[in-house]
Amino acid sequence: MSNKKPTKKELEIEGRKKLFSKKYLKEIEWLSTNELASKDSFLSDMLSVLETGNREFTEKMEKAVHKSMNSPKFDVIKSIKLREQYGPLMKKVEMIYDIVNKLDENKDEYYKSTYSALPFITSIKSQLERNMFLSEKQLGALNKVFIRYNKRLNKLLEEQRDK
């Protein structure tokens, strides 16, 4: 048997490990039991930091974990309620996506990537599905897109009616 003394770094890690297990018990428990949080790479890394003590757990990290703990993204019940609440908005985004897609489907790739609102609407749609939240500015921009493309759609329908 060797009588090797633990290094200073090993002692620091062990000290942090003990400190974290007491100080952040609620956070460790939530991170290790929440299925949705365990699928998030950042939160998995935070759990690893807290369990191993390999590095400091900064105030910024703590705030991020607390923010996640209160986020509906990681709470199944709150998530379901928010999906119900944002259902009408999601339908509107789907409708706008369909309009934009229909009007821009015959355009070339350059037009679609440069002038079309399709990438924006796709981004909004995925953000709404993922985070269940849109900012006031995003809602305003979404309404502008709707107005612009609705005018184009009405103009196209009038032209088809006149023929």
Give structural notes:
This protein starts with 7 loop residues before the first helix and ends with a helix. By secondary structure, the protein is mostly helical. It is elongated, with a radius of gyration of 25 Å. The protein folds into 2 domains: 8-76, no CATH class; 86-162, no CATH class. It has 10 helices and no strands. The protein is 79% helix and 0% strand. Helix 2 (25-33) packs across helix 4 and helix 7 (87-104) packs antiparallel against helix 9. It has helices at residues 8-23, 25-33, 35-38, 41-52, 59-70, 76-85, 87-104, 109-114, 118-131, 136-162.
Helix-strand sequence: HHHHHHHHHH
Oligomeric grouping of the chains: single chain
N-to-C span: 95 Å
For the report, how would you describe the main beta sheet?
none
Helix fraction by DSSP (H/I, runs of at least 4): over 70%
Count the E strands. Answer: 0
Structural class: mainly alpha
Radius of gyration: 25 Å
Q: How much of the polypeptide forms β-strand, as a percent range? A: under 5%
Mean pLDDT: 90
Our count of domains comes out at: 2
Low-confidence stretches: none
Broad shape: elongated
Number of helices: 10
Distinctive features:
mainly alpha; 2 domains; 79% helix
What's a concise summary of this model?
The protein is mainly α. Helices cover 79% and strands 0% of the residues.
Break the fold down into its secondary structure elements and pairings.
Blueprint: H1 8-23, H2 25-33, H3 35-38, H4 41-52, H5 59-70, H6 76-85, H7 87-104, H8 109-114, H9 118-131, H10 136-162
Helix pairs in contact: 2-4, 7-9, 7-10
